[in-house]
Amino acid sequence: MSESVQLTRAQRDDLRTVAGMIVPASEEYKVPSADDGAIQADILATLGRDTRLVTAALDHLARLAGQPLAELDAARRDAVAQEFRKSGGAAAATLVRVVLQCYYRDDRVLRSLGLELRAPFPKGYVLPDGDWSLLDPVKARGGTLRRAT
Amino acid sequence: MKDPVDVLIIGAGASGAAVAWSLAETKMHILCLEQGGWMNPAEYPSTGRDWEAKFYGEWSSSPNVRGRPEDYPINDDNSPIKVVNYNAVGGSTVMYTAHWPRLHPSDFKVKTLDGVADDWPIDYDALTPFFEENDRMMGTSGLSGDPLSPLTHPPMPQQPMGLSGAIIGKAMNTLGWHWWPSDTTVATMDYEGRARCINLGHCTPACAQGAKSSTDITYWPHAVRAGVELRTHCRVREITTDENGMATGVVYYDKDGVEQFQPAHVVIIACNGVGTPRLLLNSKSDRFPDGLANSSGLVGKNLMFHPYAQIYGYVKEPTDSNRAPPTCLWSKEWYDTDLSRGFVRGYGVQFVRGAGPVFEAVVSEQKGILPWGEDHHRVFRKLNGHRLGFSAICEDLPEEHNQVTLDPVLTDSHGIPAPKINYTISENSQKMMDHALARGREVLEMAGATDICVNSPIPWGGWHLLGTARMGTDPKRSVVNEWGRTHDVKNLFIVDGSIFVTSGGVNPTSTIQALALYIADQMKQRLANLFD
Description:
The structure holds two protein chains of two kinds. Chain A contains seven helices and no strands. Chain A is mainly alpha-helical. Chain A has one domain (3-117). The radius of gyration of chain A is 23 Å and the shape is elongated. The relative contact order of chain A is 0.14. By secondary structure, chain B is of the alpha/beta class. In chain B, the strands form three sheets. In chain B, strands 1, 2, 5, 6, 7, 8 and 16 form a seven-stranded mixed beta sheet that branches. At the A-B interface, helix 5 and helix 7 of A face helix 5, strand 4, helix 8 and helix 9 of B.
């Protein structure tokens, strides 16, 4: 059974809300928000070893908010988010990281960034060899290795 | 009781593989015990879409984060630099950048040249043939003729310069500073059964293509074919000794967790600068109450890490991002002592090509340059694929208070006491790091970089584990002699980075393996009187 089931409904709601605050949707770049259903499902399905710290972060967030984050007005929500990031330590950093690592592997997001939707292997990438005449000044300058005696 | 073996090697990483291969020609019965297993490249991160996320979990460079059964925990709370390693056949060559400089000739004589630390009991020339042999075995790429580095003869041409290399090269030329394509162990053409590099990108945590050299695909296949026995998932607890003070074998836990005793006529330790002192300190007995081979009291002391001073920024032009091996160029401009800089000794530089999107987002958010909210997307597009990095590998001088001891509480999954690290960055190293950051900033600004960020030291940068069982001719001031045999136990040898006397300012794996081959050669020459 996935460890993600350890998140309560309230925690999942707060996670979705804070994820949307970290990365909102953008019409300009044609990308979803991190509160998007597919991205949230990816986060919950892959929390794994991060579950404990993410749960701790959400507990911290709940204490700061005092009520569901989504129910706060915008100014109060922003203030809570800032305090959460400032005082949340490793747990908050882990929560932000799991949001970002799932967001930046979403097909829609990668497409918007102009990145291919694939694993690096087996196709790899092509790297330009470059103009090695750039080394000519280094060769011309030369130098000597420090002697050992 | 098991039959005794002639030679028992503990650890199948960089040095264990090299010494096993070299000794195989003696036709002795050689056994290697390795706590990890054989790797499966089909499971390497680059084979999956979630390749970057894996770096934060099962493919973290930190054994404490990975927590695989093959790993042992390390208490590094008292160190600003955390230990990173990998435990498997291939050891940390499975997970390294493949950057392949050698120590310089001057690195072996720091006392004579600069009046600090100690000279090595051997010199660069003694290692030269073994550097060359190791480069052929590991399969190196590079461009011979760097005026500020020891002469090398890589069998393959250098890596492509790429987009990032060209930007760096132009900036360094404008500043009039030295740079050169790095020697690496990345195959740039098909080589000895390895396929050429296809730029999978993040090759530090293992190469699915097999282009990056690791000893599980270089030395070990040759050694096993030559008759060396490699027993995996076997964790050694202690080395045993007899009434004459000679090593008799090891106690280990096999793959089923069952305690075993393996007798041996010669024991060779190849467990790195943390694992080796841990094993020696765990091998206490009435005869060796302070740990084995520790009459000098120096086992575990003089730990050297190489503090990394890293600075990076973002240029307008695209860089290679994650679409290339991470390192491509080095500089030795500040390698040698120049006392006008305010510190003794120096540092090498490795330039970094870029990062993948997840890493970029996570790190930039942590640094405070990637905001939450509406502006996130615009800023991310400015950062992603535009990063350039400058990492200085600062020579760490030996200090006895930097040390590996045994943790009184923490143990591994077999109940063996874990290592504990106490380490501080010296004033000399700090000045060196500050100097490097200032030079790095000049390079980045010359390249047009903005949003410059610093990691100094790189916290999870304890790759190079050196000095904790140092080499020397004086038994009171060293643990092993000038050919790797412990002063106290005449059939016990150490071949890993723990025997380094000083650290130089470069990645040490090339030198570690050259030393292992040199010690194996010394043993072969002395087989008739090895214990005299």
